[in-house]
């Protein structure tokens, strides 16, 4: 978050930079473990929906893959994501912040924290923009993995903590009349129809992406997919 003040840094920003270095010095023995163990889907989560009678047609949509895509080799890789948004968290512009983290077979491979480009008037709007941003990255990552010959046969499993957003992304019968969120709405839903990803609810206290949306975070959040690891922020 300090990178957003590079154009006009103040003394307080330098103090926060020193605070970061002090944190790294204190926790220099910490390590990130990349475990190839396959992540297991919790029972009852990510149930496949029937989209045959949705507005997308009985035939639905299919993933468009090139004919020259290499044949998958090795073990299957399972991807899951945590996504969150801090509504109107910026005290100056009141823009929200998007945060998400991507796990591949239980190992964190990518995390994202960035202020949104527009000001959303509702929590629903900011959370939907965050969901769309995460899905946009997942779509590109899945394509890259497949072009490298890595088997990704299953959809990406995306956790969020806003039940209104999840009800609108995974429910074939839902409708959205708010035009400003319509593009993100249909982008995420079409990915669900193609089974590129599925969405489900997770309690805020267990949503790892919450760490990437707040400037200060004092909770220790266990990742229920990898019970032996604990995530911190300063």
Keywords:
disordered C terminus; 234 residues; 7 strands; Nucleotidyltransferase, domain 5; two-stranded antiparallel ribbon; single chain; 2 domains; alpha/beta
Identify the overall geometry.
globular
Unreliable spans are 223-234
CATH superfamily of the largest domain: Ribonuclease H-like superfamily/Ribonuclease H
Strand order of the largest sheet: 3-2-1-4-5
- Give the total of beta strands: 7
* Mean pLDDT figure: 86
- As a percent range, the share of strand residues is 15-25%
C-alpha Rg, in Å? 19 Å
CATH architecture of the largest domain, by name, is 2-Layer Sandwich
State the secondary-structure class: alpha/beta
Note the run of SSEs as H and E.
Answer: HEEEHEHHEEE
User: Number of folding domains?
Assistant: 2
CATH topology term of the largest domain:
Nucleotidyltransferase, domain 5
Largest sheet: 5 strands, mixed
Helix content: 25-40%
How large is the count of helical segments? 4
């Amino acid at each position: 978050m300090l990178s957003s003040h590079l154009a006009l840094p103040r003394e307080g920003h330098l103090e926060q930079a020193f605070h970061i270095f002090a944190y790294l010095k204190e926790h220099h023995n910490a390590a990130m473990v990349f475990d190839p163990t396959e992540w297991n889907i919790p029972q009852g989560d990510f149930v496949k929906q029937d989209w045959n009678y949705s507005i997308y047609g009985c035939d639905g949509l299919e993933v468009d893959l090139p004919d020259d895509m290499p044949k998958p080799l090795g073990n299957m890789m399972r991807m899951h994501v945590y996504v969150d948004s801090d509504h109107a968290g910026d005290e100056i512009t009141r823009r929200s912040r998007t945060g998400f983290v991507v796990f591949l077979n239980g190992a964190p491979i990518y995390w994202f924290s960035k202020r949104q480009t527009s000001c959303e008037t509702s929590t629903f709007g900011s959370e939907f923009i965050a969901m769309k941003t995460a899905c946009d990255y997942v779509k590109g990552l899945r394509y890259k993995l497949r072009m490298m010959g890595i088997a990704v046969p299953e959809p990406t499993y995306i956790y969020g903590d806003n039940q209104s957003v999840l009800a609108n992304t995974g429910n074939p019968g839902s409708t959205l009349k708010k035009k400003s969120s319509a593009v993100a709405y249909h982008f995420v839903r079409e990915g669900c129809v193609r089974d590129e990803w599925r969405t489900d609810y997770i309690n805020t206290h267990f949503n790892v992406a919450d760490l990437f949306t707040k400037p200060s975070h004092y909770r220790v959040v266990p990742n229920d997919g990898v019970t032996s690891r604990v995530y911190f922020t300063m």
